[in-house]
Design goal:
The chain is built from one helix and 26 strands. With 298 residues, it is mainly beta. It starts with a strand and ends with a strand.
Length: 298
């Protein structure tokens, strides 16, 4: 399985700055652009069939545009969120906004702090995974036991209501930091620190695997076939790509190989990698460059 350059995301107008780019449920690229000279946003959806633009003439109030997240919703709507939410006297800052196809805000809410994974499903629900700063900060701070951040992973609907919270079966299953969530066309899976378990989400009885693959950047699922990108072995040695299949409770390694990634913040480029796991499809965004890899090509 090789990572290849798929496309370059082009600014919709001259002078537009890319705030964030990611992949939706149909493996299309969705991007959020800021036009500083006009104080507005533009949302672009790039697929093989069409290219869609949504003009947001009155962007929602956010503390910083530097850490924005975006996902497509059914009926042409879009969910935009700020990764962090400041605490105010009135409570947590509203950091999630549903935009309709005309760019108007139709719903506003609070969806947690320190959001690390943000992926919508075909039915319009969205999975969110949180970082350790948010998880532990929400317990120590004033956000309360109902704060979604404390669960580590939650699922919300289009109304920004929580419809599912991850519940640890034991102390070993607790989420300290969400590394990745894979949201395919049917199932969703979570992968998190400290246990680095693989958990099937969205079921009354979540299934848990012990893959013994710590620190992976992303993982792919295709039936029983599974692949982990990045991470370490038992001797803390960096690993590129591990391919195998899920057994009854664990991960059976079949092949271990190098996995090329474009130079990141420590190399020639100043942009970090943004990994998006969609079933058997991997998307990597680095600035305006869109890379893809697929288990079907392995």
């Amino acid at each position: 399985m090789d990572l290849r350059h798929h496309a370059t995301l082009l600014p919709p107008v001259r002078g537009a700055d890319l705030l964030t780019a990611t992949a939706g449920p149909n493996n299309d690229a969705i991007s959020l652009w800021s036009v500083p000279t006009e104080s507005r946003w533009i949302v672009t959806l790039q697929s093989t069939q069409e290219s869609i633009r949504i003009h947001v003439d009155e962007p929602p109030p956010v503390s910083s545009e530097a850490k924005m997240l975006i996902q497509p919703l059914p009926d042409g709507e879009v969910l935009v969120a700020a990764r962090d939410s400041a605490w105010k006297r009135s409570g947590p800052e509203q950091n999630a906004f549903v935009l309709n196809a005309h760019g108007a805000i139709v719903k506003t809410g609070y969806v947690g702090n320190d959001i690390r994974v943000f992926l919508s499903a075909p039915n319009g629900d969205t999975w969110l995974g949180y970082g350790d700063r948010g998880i532990y900060g929400s317990r120590k701070g004033r956000r309360g036991s109902l704060d979604p951040t404390q669960s580590g992973i939650v699922r919300i609907n289009k109304e920004l209501e929580i419809v599912e919270r991850y519940k640890a079966a034991s102390a070993e299953d607790f989420i300290d930091h969400c590394y990745d969530i894979n949201v395919g066309l049917i199932d969703a899976y979570g992968y998190f620190y400290e246990s680095f378990e693989l958990v099937r989400l969205g079921h009354r009885l979540p299934r848990i695997w012990q893959p013994n693959v710590p620190g992976a950047k992303a993982f792919l699922i295709d039936g029983e076939a599974c692949a982990f990108v990045g991470g370490y072995d038992g001797n803390s040695r960096p690993v590129g790509l591990r391919e195998g299949f899920l057994s009854e409770t664990g991960f059976e390694l079949v092949k271990e190989s190098e996995f090329w990634l474009p130079p990141s913040e420590d190399g020639n480029s100043g942009h970090p990698h943004h990994f998006v796991s969609r079933g058997p499809e991997l998307h990597v965004f680095q600035g305006a460059d869109w890379y893809r890899a697929s288990m079907s090509e392995a």
